[in-house]
Amino acid sequence: MGAMLEQFPVIVSQGVIWSDMDAYGHVNNTVYLRYFEDARMAYFEQIGVEKLKQQSNLGPIVARVECNFRAPLHYPDNIQVATRSVLLSARKFSMEFAVYSTNLDRVVADGEGLVLFYDYSRGRSCDIPETILGAMERLGGRGPVRC
Fold this sequence. Notes:
6-stranded antiparallel beta sheet; alpha+beta; 147 residues; elongated; 3 helices; Thiol Ester Dehydrase, Chain A
């Protein structure tokens, strides 16, 4: 695995499946967002988001995602999808992603997503709860900004 991925606290390993491919013979661009989602959900599990959502109806909501394609990915291959967070304010954080191909021995895509904390009962953004901030910091969240 690439040395770059060592900087990411959450890494999901999975295989590229045949249905990820498109008519041009490589993984379709939309599939990378699903790969990012897999890593994002693993990260959320580690910081306790689901428990919080069930208890208080507070949780994350994705506001924006972008992806940079570095090299085409093909079936069969095994990938590692890595993520980490950067706290931006009391209500939002960004998540950085990297997709590493075992066959190519390199990062084939990277990207970033903007995540807001959201009060699903009231239908508006809210501050990130202290329990989640603490879990993010323990997991290596970078750049804590308390507003």
